[in-house]
Write a structure and sequence with these properties.
Blueprint: H1 2-14, H2 16-37, H3 45-54, H4 56-70, H5 78-94, H6 100-123, H7 129-152, E1 158-160, H8 164-171, E2 173-174, E3 177-178, H9 179-197, H10 199-209, H11 211-216, H12 221-247, E4 249-251, H13 259-268, H14 280-299, H15 304-334
Antiparallel strand pairs: 1-4, 2-3
Helix pairs in contact: 2-14, 3-14, 4-9, 4-10, 4-12, 4-13, 4-14, 5-6, 5-7, 5-12, 6-7, 6-12, 8-12, 9-10, 13-14, 13-15, 14-15
Length: 335
Amino acid sequence: MKSEGNSKIKSLFQNKVFTLLCLWLVMVIVFSIWAAAKNTSFLQISVFKNILNSLVVPGFLTIGAGCLLIAGHLDLSQAAIGAFGSMVLATAIKAWGLPWYVAILLCLLLCCVFGLINGLLVVKLNFPSFIGTLAMASMVKGLMYLFSAMGNNGIAANISFLNSATAFIGSGTVAGIPFCIFLVVIAFIIFGLLMSKTAFGMKVTFLGGNPVAATLAGINASGIIILLFVLSALTGGIGGVIFSSRLSQGSLMALTTSQFTGLTAAILGGISFGGGVGNMGGAFIGLLILNTFQIGMGIVGVNPFWVNVFSGVLLLVALSLDFFAMLRQQKVLVH
């Protein structure tokens, strides 16, 4: 019985999500002490609400990027597609006079088309996902200028619009909690269960771990990869919709800082850059760590430029740990 208890404790401490959660708690304690020394306060409900609220947009990017990373692929066009979606939403409401729900559906549908093209480039034309999605990002950025011209009768960086329904999506509250926080938490739960408890999630993980064996086992690798690229674009589009809904405007610069936040959170959360490993629970905690770090540094008065530097260091550390983990796994397989 004692050995069984020790085994459970050991297993708990080896769990990536538990380790990340402990790291987050340590971070909260450090910032609380640091803030107190600066005669300010970190341990406030408003601060934690702000942390959760700020992770909504990158949270959707993390979901799409994380699922694709587990399958062993990378999407560098996700943020650009999300920004394109924000311009489509603003143009559809302001210039075309479409109802808000039709505008959102059109925005997400067009984003999915770009995801489909990404998937076809990778699966049918054998483009490396890095190259194909980088080219797509460039193309989408060009299309954003076309929508900017349509929405403003001339190119402008932003397209402002007014709509009470979209304003609620972006800034409305339920029981004092921002509505969009519920959306992203529900999305993480749904995709967490999808990737860990369903046959589809097992196929995605198997495909990322050993694509050749997965194909030989009869898994429709092409269909799954295309679907995941569409999902990545869709979550990028949702991020763009929420961004626009919060500011009541579409922007050429939307989500520009969120692309690598999503990837960093996914990798920091235990999703392997090489595929085949990871889950949405770890990705969520990774995102929580990043946002707590950024907001905590702001509260204690650290220069924002240094915050960007330290965020880059976190990404480097996460990638390094993932790289060494892959090396250890390869050595185990060889021996």
